Amino acid sequence: MAPRRKRYREGIDQNLAEELAALPGLPLNDLKRWWQDCYGSPPPSRLGRALTVRAIAYRLQDQAFGGLSPMTRRQLARAAEQISAGRPLSAPPTAIKPGTRLLREWQGVTHEVIVLEDGIQYRGETWASLSAVARAITGTRWSGPLFFGLKGRRR
User: Which superkingdom does the taxonomy of this entry point to (predicted)?
Assistant: First the structure.
């Protein structure tokens, strides 16, 4: 399969899918030609086959579908700045839409909360946060999103 330099257009997504599916089975010399065509330089000498295939597949999809959105580019730039400054990356806050109903069983009792515009409704009262509700239920400090299953435990 010879590399081709072109921009994909609507209606030929099948062609792209076929090219992507064929990449892992190509001989190494063909992959090197694809890399040269996609990136304009030879592949790094110690780059493994699997990573070479993934990088070529990424570039083909980037050409076909236009790359990263401006928002994603900004988020990546901010993350790079944080890393360069030695600050840890922080996860974006979990956004829960008003009207969302969360259920949690605790010690045999099912607890239901409803997310409001200005807080959390639990047993007819409005609470400031999920963590406040979790503390009322358990009697100890809990991360509300963790207690209600919105975040996984750190390992």
Answer: Bacteria
Place of tokens 């999920």: 130
Per-residue model confidence as pLDDT tens digits over 85-127: 988 877 666 678 999 999 999 999 999 999 999 999 999 999 9
Q: 0.70 cut: is pTM over it?
A: no
What separation in angstroms does the CA of 111 have from each of 14, 51, 68, 100, 129? Answer: 48, 47, 41, 14, 15
- What's the sign of the alpha-carbon dihedral 138, 139, 142, 144? positive
Asked if residues 105 and 111 have their Cβ atoms less than 8 Å apart, the reply is: yes
Label residue 71 exposed, middle or buried (CB < 10 Å: 0-12, 13-18, 19+).
exposed
- Measured in degrees and rounded to the nearest 5, phi and psi for residue 131 equal -65, -40
